[in-house]
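COMPLEX REQUEST
Ligand: heme C
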Amino acid sequence: MNLITRTGIVATLLAISAATLAEVKASDAVEYRQGIYKAVKWNFGPMGDMVKGKQEFNAAEFTRRADNLAALSKMPLEGFVAGTYNGSYSGSTDALPAIEKDWETFAGIMSDFETNAAALAETAASGDMNAIRPAFMSVAKTCKSCHDKFKD
Ligand code: HEC
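STATUS: Structure written out below.
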């Protein structure tokens, strides 16, 4: 085998491993962000039940969940990377390609999510449901405005 052939084989192997690596990273990113949203729902659900009176209001639990949500709100953005959108990604995702096309709007709503979740955590500490309810609704509106535009 001459040197040129050998270099060609090595280059091909490197290209294959790079492609495999990229694939693993895409699925990691999708699983990461979906996992964060599952944790968001886990915390946001009982908070909603307390706001709606379906579950008895427990200030300590509400505050703990609001703190969790504020931390979680900072996490999903980094999971939205190229090649992981509905249409271009081979696995299952509800993330629409509009995210990539209109990144500024998407990142802007994500930033509102962070701001509103931080405000809710702050309000939760007061234990006053009259202040908590509108703060909760602001966060809920942020979920909906993003899902309407960017989620299948
Ligand atoms: C800035 C955009 C944005 C915001 C804000 C947002 N989401 Fe989402 N959410 C998405 C996208 C995009 C997906 C799809 C992710 C995927 O499938 O790859 C998603 C997926 C989800 C899922 C499904 C996770 C799974 O795969 O099982 C749940 C549940 C969810 N979001 C709940 C919420 C709740 C509750 C809020 C607000 C408290 C919220 N989201 C805020 C964009 C957003």
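REMARKS: Residues 30, 33-34, 37-38, 40-41, 44, 93-95, 106, 109-110, 113, 139, 142-143, 146-147, 150-151 surround heme C (CB under 6 Å). Helices lie at 3-51, 59-72, 98-101, 103-124, 129-150.
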